């Protein structure tokens, strides 16, 4: 039990109570005294080494019977399988940076992973800068370019725009002939979006825990369910992976969440869709036949400007209602322990026309959502593990 922290001559300290069992069988909480966190961290590491060597050495500032050692939380790095999938032809670090950018959390504790998806014709670089500015605690960030997952050369990726305008996730216009915008339900647009979802699902699977870091991705049918097999520490579990998309990237994010729920895949931790969402009502409608939607629905925050013509609040409300109805409808016909998953939410910024997050109100709504959905670790507490003392 950790009591309130106190400051002693500028050092970060706290008081620790431990549950001890006495020879009589009585169990009682006893005060272990103040702990200098900075000092105890380094000294506890030495205790762990000594314990492994056979010496029963007490932990500094903690009563000897505890025999505690402090495990230092490490950074997480992208699994090798994810690097190969995102940049299959990369030979140098510079080549990989053109396909994706990865940064650790501000404190170096990468409990969660935020995957950022840019808009049509945009680049992943500004979104890496956004992640750097947000400084979300315990959240690493992976900014992905639509040029990633390419099969060769400088081309490939999801969809290449004409005239050197960059890349996008799926076909929104007839880039080959007319140059006009494709209707939402146009076969080319729906098919292209479906293939983009396949690729993103595959990429997300490569970011997750695996029984072996050398496992190969087996395509879009890779299951994202947890397994009981021994896992490595080079990935994240699904509920600690989050999506943040803008425009076309927001559409891809929402479609992916719907696909995972419809296919009974493990849900993600959450998704934020800025100025964009699912373009095909049929995609959400098809999910209505799947009773597992409620159990697998990923929490979503949709953000729109009150004067946004490309993605007006009415569209955000309609898509949110459809998503929530699927979750509620499925939960009524399935056993879910009486608990209903958080429904999708909408945040509308008054007076805003469109664009990425800009105002303080939008930032607050975004950070509040992540604070509610993301997992937080307490290294000062969880790291103290018992070490068997040997004589």
From TrEMBL:
Listed GO MF terms: carboxylic ester hydrolase activity; palmitoyl-(protein) hydrolase activity
Domain of life: Eukaryota
Entry-linked Pfam families: Abhydrolase_2
Transmembrane segments: none
Gene Ontology cellular-component terms listed: cytoplasm
Domain Phospholipase/carboxylesterase/thioesterase: from-to ranges: 109-328
Similarity-based family: Belongs to the AB hydrolase superfamily. AB hydrolase 2 family.
Protein's recorded name: Phospholipase/carboxylesterase/thioesterase domain-containing protein
Species in which this protein is naturally found: Odontella aurita
